[in-house]
Every structure is written in structure tokens, then in C-alpha cells.
Amino acid sequence: MSRKLFYWACLAVMIAVPSSCDKTEEKVDDDPDPGSKDVVLAGESGAWAMPEQSDEVVQTYIVPEAPFEYDKTFEYDPTNFPNPERGPYNPISYSYINGNIPKLASVSDMTRTRESGCSLMFSHFYLCDFLNSVISDEVLAHIRTHFSRVREAGCKTIVRFAYSWYWDAGDKTQQEPDTEIILAQIAQLKPIFEEFADIIYVVQMGFVGTYGEWAYTTNVTKRSDRSQIVKAVLDALPARRQVALRTPSHMRMTLSDITGKSFKLRDSVTVATAFDGSYVSRIACFNDCAFVNYNDGGTYADEADRLLWSSSSNYVALGGESCFVGDDKYCQCIPSYKNLRTFHWSYLSNHHDIIKIWQAKGCYDDASARVGYRFVLNGAVFSGLFTAGGKFEVKLCLGNYGFASLINPHDLEFVIGSESDPSEQYVIKSATDPRYWQGSHYYVHTENLVLPDGLKAGEKYTLSIRIADAEPNLHDRPEYSVRFANKNVWDANTGCNRLGTFTAK
Fold first, then answer.
1. Is residue 245 within 8 Å of 56, Cβ to Cβ?
2. Domain-by-domain residue ranges, the chain?
3. What's the chain's Rg over C-alpha atoms?
4. Spatial CB neighbours of 221, under 8 Å, sequence gap ≥ 6
5. If you write DSSP's letter for every residue of 288-323 in order, what string do you get?
6. What CATH number belongs to 375-503?
7. Would you say 395 and 423 are in contact if contact means Cβ atoms under 8 Å apart?
8. pTM for the whole thing?
9. CA 52 to CA 340: how far, in whole Å?
10. Which of 352, 440, 498, 403 has its CA nearest to residue 4?
11. Which is deepest, 47, 129, 142, 349, by most CB within 10 Å?
12. Which residue from 57, 61, 66, 53 is spatially nearest to 77, judged by alpha carbons?
């Protein structure tokens, strides 16, 4: 099928753009038994699922029945605003070919992209000149500069490396180097991965085949070689970052090889093993042919494949792009909603024809705003005296109206700031990990705060909730904090979401 990339409301910054080509998923040898279909679904005390609205062409946020009596309620904001590590992405492609070093995307271009709604970049590096050698120092420096600009612009990036974007059945043009050269290049990239792990959202497992999608290979054809390359990338990245594979079959085979035992569905990541740094917890998913048919263009071979990714994507990133071939059966609003919710989509580049269908049917704004997480405050109750050193309980009813969870580490914090003196601010870090607030669920969250001793009687203080990036150099940058989908709560200067104002006793 024809593959051309079209993107949601993002400023396109394309550098040395590769041409489109046909794509067909390759059959890989010796696929192990898909294993048990028993799936342990994630759950949490005080959590319950949102209604599916499966027959609604245009879905809306449904405020749940209050689980306790509120002191304060919050109004839902349907605006599709940018939030870190979710939603649409802006593609930036560099082709290093015939000695060419492409012009770098500028910080101002990336900043404008963010302002238009995209906080994610897609950084695609084509190492065409390095089929038989290691990467040159000049190109490594170029890659470093690009990542530095992503950070300066307040964005994060999906990353993929490849060597070719062209394939023809009668042309045996080399698609990738030998395994040994790829491993040597990954070793060169390891210091870059470590230096810029803070702004890397996920690494898509490229290096092999056309576009780096593991199809139409010439040199890396053995399963053992592929698994060795995946393990090398996992080891080159810090353990807090994930590597996405193109199909469930690739995930199953790779984990069988690198863990040393046949991988079954029951071995997939669960609430007990999520985010523990193991290989199983770090293998993510990317689907580059969504909404085209029931199996998403060959992404899923059977129901076991669908179960594997629908379960795993509670805790690992799943994203990619959609396909369109003229048959709109699977990309109408209702089947699209089902796909997005079932597989917990975190990021998506959508085909322009599908965008038109969603817009015509009225579901575009809602569906696109929900790709990734989307936290909503419903109501709160506050108990105790707001006094220096006092105990103060905050009980929140909140929802994640998005299709997915947060994936990378974030700190949940309660921030107390003086209204008269901006320099007087106190931060109380919660023990709760917001990555466990899964998509399409409501939650009751209770926080027992011990208020700071420095509070001044008679002074007014604003109490806020902040979900800040856990990376130390990004933690205090508001563009990397999570905005709740509520009216009149977000403070863009601090990255905080205001819960209420209290006068210290």
C-alpha cells in the first residue's frame, strides 16, 4: 500500500525527506507458540473503568457520580492543548548520504511546532553513508546538536535509525549493514543516548530493513542477529527508557531470545513488574499501519498478538502512524475509538484522509485530544486545619480520559505557594506514581499532607498539584509538567494545577 506521511495540526519540518514506498510486513522464521491468553489486567484500589461509549460516533467526557461529598468541583476543558510525551508528533528526517550533512531543524521551528499542539518530535536518522563503517564524528556531532535543540525547545522525541527508504522486488540494494557494524554503531550512540535520555521519549527499534521497520532486509535476516541488536539498544539506553518493536511477533521472539525462555502471553509486563527496569518492562510497541483493516496491515497475526499488545500497552508506549487505502471501514470514528482504547495509543501520526473522516463525523477533536494520557479533576474535599506543621488531607476524584498512561518517570507533587510572596513556596512530594493512572479510568486519590512549619498565620496560600518530569534538569521547566484538562486550574508559569486557596490559621 502507498505509504506517505501526513500529520495532525503540526508544523511540518522535513529535512531530506525520504520517498514513499509499498510496505508489507515480513514473515519471520520460527515464531514461538503465542502462549496463554490469560491476561492479568491492571487495577488499583479506588479505581474504576469509564463507560466505553462504544456506540457513540462522538464521545464526551462523562463526569462520574461523586464517590464522596465534594468541597470543590472542577469543570472539564475539551481544549486540545499540548502536553509532554503524548499526542501527535512532528517528523524531522535527516539523510546522511553522499557525504551530505543536512541542515538542522531550528529551535524556533520546534518551538512553533509545540505552540501548534505538538510536544513530540520524531527524529529519523538515515545513516546511508555508513553501510560498511562506523559513524563519522561529524555525524555524531550533528545528532547531538539536534537533540540539544529538541531540549531547548521544550520538546521530547521519538527516535529511529535506519539506512534506506527504498525497496524494489527486482533490486537487491543493500538495506542495512552486517550485524557487527550495526553493533559497533550502537556502541557509538550509547553516550548520546545517555546524555539525552531526558528528552528521548522512546526509541523505535530501527537499524534493520527499509525505513528501519524490519521488512525487506538484505543482511540481517537471522532471528538471533535481530535479537542481539535489540538487546544492544536496550543496554545502550538507560534502564528508565523503552525500545519499541514493530509487531507482537517481534516482541515475542526477542523476549524469548534475550530472557532465555520461550515467551508466553502470561510473561508480559503486569502491574507487578511495570517500570522495574527489566527487559520485559522495557519492550514497547510501534504500529505503523493503524486503522487500515482488522489486523492493522499485518501488525497482528492473531488474537494472541492483539491480547499481548493490549495488555502490555498499559505500561509501555504504543504509537505510530495510520494507513489509508480507500476502504474506510476501520477508520470511521467508532472502530477508531475501539482501536485507540484497546491498544492504549500514546502517540499517533494520522493520515490526512482519516483526519478528514474524523472531522466530517465530528470525532476528530475528542479522539485526537485523548491520544496518550488526559488527566481530569472532578472534585476534591479538604480536611484539617491549614496551619504551620498541621495535618491536612486532600482527597481527589480524578480521571484519565486519555487512552494511555504516562510512560516515563514523573513526580507527583503538592505545591504550596504564598499569594503575596512568590519566593515562598513549598513542595511536598507524593509517594504515588502517576504512571499507574491508566487510560479510561477514574481514581480516588488521598494525600495526607504535613504542612510546612514556615506557613504564616493570616497569609493566603495556593495549593496546587504538579506532575513534573522526574529528570533533574527538566523538573522545574513548566513545559515538561502535565496540564490537567480543567478550566481555570493551569498555571503555565509554574507547571502547576491549582486546587484551591487557603488562609493559614
1. no
2. 375-503
3. 23
4. none
5. EEETSSTTTTTT-SSHHHHHHHHHHTTTS-EEEEE-
6. 2.60.40
7. no
8. 0.91
9. 12
10. 352
11. 349
12. 61
